[in-house]
Amino acid sequence: MRMKYGFLLIALFVAGLLAACETAPGEITGKVTYSNGRDASVMIKVFDASGNVVHTASSSTGGVYYTGRRIPPGTYIVRAFKGDEQVGEDHEVTVDPDASVVCNIVI
């Protein structure tokens, strides 16, 4: 009887680990530059398919930004802003579980 429950607990534990691995958040990282190649300091906003902002980040004076591993797997639109004005084009990215995707932006 104990062996049966022990096996059941192990099976549930393994299933939980597999589920966690499949849904582990990923990150978006990249560099923002002007068309002349100079680094740009902007606000980055990440939007989900419904148009909701799911994350914001600021690029450094060197133009580099990253979200950290906070973005659930899925497809997103990354946009750069100077104040309230969008600069540059929309960038579609797909975040995989526990992975980093690079999205460089030229404004």
List the helices and strands and how they pair.
Elements: H1 2-23, E1 27-33, E2 43-47, E3 53-58, E4 64-66, E5 74-82, E6 85-95, E7 100-102, E8 105-106
Parallel strand pairs: 1-7, 1-8
Antiparallel strand pairs: 1-4, 2-3, 2-5, 5-6
Structure description:
The protein has 107 residues and is α/β, with parallel strands linked by helices. The chain has one helix spanning 2-23, and strands spanning 27-33, 43-47, 53-58, 64-66, 74-82, 85-95, 100-102, 105-106. It has one domain: Carboxypeptidase-like, regulatory domain (Immunoglobulin-like, Sandwich), CATH 2.60.40.1120. Helices cover 21% and strands 43% of the residues. A hairpin with a 2-residue loop joins strand 5 and strand 6. The model has no long low-confidence stretch (mean pLDDT 87).
Mean pLDDT: 87
**CATH first level: which class?**
Mainly Beta
Q: How would you classify the helix and strand content by structural class?
A: alpha/beta
Our estimate of the beta-strand percent is 35-45%
Which bin fits the share of residues in helices? 10-25%
Global Rg: 19 Å
The sequence of SSEs as H and E is HEEEEEEEE
Termini separation comes to: 66 Å
Low-confidence stretches: none
For this structure, the CATH topology is: Immunoglobulin-like
Which descriptor suits the 3D outline?
Answer: globular
Level-2 CATH architecture: Sandwich
Q: What is the total tally of β strands?
A: 8
Largest sheet: 4 strands, mixed
Discrete helix count: 1
Domains (count): 1
CATH superfamily: Carboxypeptidase-like, regulatory domain
